[in-house]
Amino acid sequence: MTLARQDAEYPVDAQLKAALTQPLNALREWAANRPELQALCTQYGELAQAGTQRLLPGPTGERNTWTLLPRERVLCIADDEQDALTQLAAVLAVGSQMLWPDDALHRQLVKALPSAVSERIQLAKAENITAQPFDAVIFHGDSDQLRALCEAVAARDGAIVSVQGFARGESNILLERLYIERSLSVNTAAAGGNASLMTIG
């Protein structure tokens, strides 16, 4: 069942999404003289599902919900302004924070952006940026640079981190790889019994 069919049968709780996308709306307004960026903000905003909760079909006496939340921080690497802003629009659309290299390009962008957007961005020195906390990566650039980045990310301790690599100018970022999924099953029929048996998630 696609989300469109699911949403036609069961209501979607999108209250959290409205709060998460406020910085994206600020970026869209800032991009009044950048029609391509404005279009991307609109496109990503319509596609984004972070901050939504759906009631799933299930047997009588059971309530199942599926929630999509944003990953906490996304490392974004690009060497030109267009790609950096494309990455920014995608990350803001799902409600995550951004980690940018502390270089002239990104410092200048942070200063130019509205405060609602710049507050979502953290800068770190390029030489140790992969040692910073992040749980997803978006990269625009050459294949050799991407290979080196993937090796550095793979060498980190902890959970495996997804890396999306693109050529310069590409904008087909997969927003679904920037989500955390949470499912919760509540056995409402057990409400009068052992409370520990009521919830799984």
Q: How is this structure best summarized?
A:
The protein has 201 residues and is an alpha/beta fold. It contains 8 helices and 10 strands. The chain has a single domain, classed as Aldehyde Dehydrogenase, Chain A, domain 1 (3-Layer(aba) Sandwich), CATH 3.40.605.
What percentage of residues falls in helices of 4 or more residues? Answer: 25-40%
**Which structural category do the helix and sheet elements fall into?**
alpha/beta
N- and C-termini, Cα separation: 22 Å
Give me the CATH architecture, please: 3-Layer(aba) Sandwich
Number of domains: 1
How many H/I helical runs? 8
Q: CATH H-level name... which superfamily?
A: Aldehyde Dehydrogenase, Chain A, domain 1
Percentage of residues in strands: 25-35%
Mean pLDDT: 90
Q: What fold name goes in the CATH topology slot? A: Aldehyde Dehydrogenase, Chain A, domain 1
Q: Would you mind describing this structure in some detail?
A:
The chain is of the alpha/beta class and 201 residues long. The chain has a single domain, classed as Aldehyde Dehydrogenase, Chain A, domain 1 (3-Layer(aba) Sandwich). Helices cover 37% and strands 25% of the residues. The chain contains eight helices and ten strands. It has helices spanning 3-9, 15-20, 22-30, 35-47, 81-94, 104-112, 115-118, 143-154; strands spanning 12-13, 52-56, 62-70, 73-77, 97-101, 121-124, 136-140, 162-166, 179-187, 199-200. The strands form two sheets. Strands 1-2-3-9-10 form a five-stranded antiparallel β-sheet. A five-stranded parallel β-sheet has the order 6-5-4-7-8, with helices on both faces. It is globular, with a radius of gyration of 19 Å. 29% of the residues are buried. Keywords: Oxidoreductase. This is Trifunctional transcriptional regulator/proline dehydrogenase/pyrroline-5-carboxylate dehydrogenase. Its EC number is 1.5.1.12. It comes from Escherichia coli.
